Amino acid sequence: MSEPLLKLTDVSKSYGATAVLHDISLEVRPGEVLCLLGDNGAGKSTLIKVLSGFHEPTSGTFEVDGKPATFKSPRDAGEHGIACVHQFGGTFPLMSIGRSFFVGAEPTKGWGPLRRFDRKFAGEVAVREIRALGITRVTDGDRLVGGLSGGERQALAIGRAVYFGANVLILDEPTAALGVKEAAHVLRIIMQARQKGIAVILVTHNVTHAMAVGDHFAVLIRGTLAADFRKGERTREEITDLMAGGEAMAELEAEIEAYQREHAGQVPDPAELEQLADHQKPTA
Amino acid sequence: MAPVHTSTAPASDGATVPSESRGAALGNLVRRPETGALIGTLSVFVFFAIFGGSQFLSAGGTASWLNVAAELGIIAIPVGLLMISGELDLSVGSVLASSSMTLAIVSGHWGAPVGLGILLALGLGLLTGFLNGLLVTRTGVPSFVVTLATNFGLAGLTLGLSRVITGTTSVAIDPGSPAKELFGTLLANKFEVAIFWWIGVVLVVGWMLHASRYGNWILAVGGDTVSARATGIPVPKVKIALFMGSALGAALVGVIQTLLYNSAQVANGQAFVFNSIIAVVIGGVLLTGGYGSVVGVVLGTLTFAIVQQGIYYTGWNSDWASLILGILLLAAVLMNNTFRKMALSYAPKRKA
Asked: What's this protein's function (chain B) (predicted)?
C-alpha cells in the first residue's frame, strides 16, 4: 500500500469547553477516495475546517508526506497541496470565469507599475481546464460564473484546485444541490481526479454516491470516528445504518421488535412509530 | 483540450460551437454592468439639454456640473471600490470637514507652511480610514454602524477642537502659490482644477480595479469573503486599505475646498455621505458587494451632478432636484438589476 499523503493522529478540536472532535486518526492515500460520512452535527464540517487550515486543532498531529505539519491558515494548507471545495463551488457568481479561476493567484504580464492581470491567459486556462473535466458547454472565460450550472461550478472549482497542484482535494457535499445528471458528472470528475493520483476526501449524505466512488469510508458519530473501513467490507445496508445515526437506528428497530412481541406481531401504526422515533432522538 | 478527456464529455454537449461570434457587439454591450448607468447619464443630459436650453450647454453650464461631479467623484470612486468589497463608508462627511479644518488651523490659524497643513490633513484622513477598517475587520460590527459612529464622533471632535483652538467654527487661510494653483484654482474662471484630480483618481483606481491583481481581490472579497479567505487573499488588509482609500478621497476634497474657498468650516461635507452612495449605486455597483466598475461610478457621478445643477437652468424651482434624484436612484437600481440578470443568464448559443 502506498504511503499516506496526509496522516492525522489523535486530532481533537474543541471550541471553548465544547469538544467537537475526539481523537480522530485518519490516513489519506494518493489515488484514493475517502468518503467522510456522518449525520448533521457529527463533526464533519469541523474536521474539514481543520484539514483545510480554517481552524487549528486543539491537540493531535498532522503529517504531510510523512513530515509533521501545522496549518495556521487556508493558505498554509494550500501550500501543502490541500484544497477545499465547498458545496456551491466556493466561486464568485458575479466574477468572470477566468478571474474566478485565478483568484488569489492572478497571472500578470508587463513590468513594474504596468504589471497587469493577464485576462486572456486566465480565460484560456480556465476554459481549457474546465473542458478537460468534460464540461464542453463552457467556451468563454469572460462570462460570469453565475451563468454556470451547479455541476459546472464544481468543475471550475475542482479544475482550479488541480491546476494549482492540489494533491488532497476536499469536496464538501459536492452533489447535494445537484440534479441526478449533474451529480453523475461530478462523480465522474472525482474519478478522473483519483486517476491522476489525487487523494479525494468526499463528504456526502448520499450512500449511492459514496458507494459509487469511495475506496475508503470513515463514519463520524458525535465527534468520534465510529467506523473506518474499506470498500467491500460493509454492505450498503450497514453503511446506510451508520450514516443514519448507527446505534440510534438499531435501537429503534429493537424497540419496534419489542412492540411487535408485546402486541402479538402487530406492526405499530405510524403515529406510534413517530413517538418511538421521537423517543430515540439524541437529547443533545 | 486534451483528446484524452473527450471521452468523458456527455454526447449531448457535442454540438457546442467553441468560436464565439464577434458580431454580437450590441448583445455584449447590454451585458456590461455600466449599460444602465450610461442610459441614465445620456437620458438626464438630453432631458436638461432640452429643458435647460443653450445656457445648460454653454461652457458655464458644463463647468457647473463638471465641478460638482469632480468633487463628488474624487470621493465616490474610492467609496465605490469599498462598496464593491462589500463595505460602506458613512464617515466621509466628517473626514472631509476634519481634514479641511486641520489644514485651515495648521496653515491658516497657526501660520505653518501650507504643505505641512496639506500633509497633516491627508494624514488625518488616512488615520480615520485605518481606524474604520481596523474596527470593522477586528470587531465584525457592520461597517454601516462603525462608520456612522465615526462620522458623528469625528464631527463632534472637529467642532469641539476647532472652538477650543480658534474660538470659531470657520477659519480663513491664505494658501498662496503653488498650493492654490495645484488644488484650488479655477481654469478659464470656470473649471475647478479638481476636475484633473478626479481624472487622476479615475485612472489610478480604474487601473487598480480592472487591470491589477488587487482588483480581482476586491471583487472576490465582495463576492464571497469566506471563499476569498480560502484562496489566501488577506481579507482584513484589503478592507483596511479600501477604508483608507475612501477616507483619503474625502480628505483630498477637504483640502481642495479649503484652498478653493480660502476658508474651512466645521459643517462642510456632510452632503457627500449620501451623495457618494447615490452616485455609486446609480453607477451599477451592487450594494452587497462583488460587482461594479469604475466607468459605472463615473457615469453615476455625472448623472447626479447633471441633475443637481441642470435643474437651475430649467427655470424651475430647485426643490425638485431631490425628487428627480430619488426617482432616478430607484429606477437605476431596478435597471441595473435587470442588466445584471441578463449578464448572468447568458448561455452559449448552440447550433440549431
From this structure: Part of the binding-protein-dependent transport system for D-xylose. Probably responsible for the translocation of the substrate across the membrane.
Does the pLDDT at position B305 exceed 80?
yes
Of A95, A137, A144, the CB nearest to B13: A137
- Cell numbers at B335, concatenated: 435597471
ipTM exceeds 0.85: no
B316 DSSP assignment = S
- Please, which contacts does A106-115 make with residues 24 or more away whose CB atoms are closer than 8 Å? A106/B213, A106/B216, A108/B213, A115/B212, A115/B213
Rounded distance, CA B90 to CA B76, Å? Answer: 12
The pLDDT tens digits of the residues spanning A171-229 come to 888 888 788 888 888 888 888 888 888 899 998 888 888 888 888 888 888 888 878 88
Residue A3 has, within 13 A of its CA and on its CB side, a CA count of 6
Domains identified in chain A and CATH numbers: 6-245 (3.40.50.300), 250-280 (no CATH)
Domain B44-332 architecture: Orthogonal Bundle (1.10)
Taking alpha carbons only, the member of B151, B258, B224 closest to residue A153 is: B224
The residue ranges of every structural domain in chain B are: 44-332
A116 and B212 within 8 Å at the Cβ level: the answer is yes
With beta carbons under 8 A apart, name residues in chain B contacting A144: 343-344, 346
d(CA B90, CA B94) in angstroms, rounded, equals 9
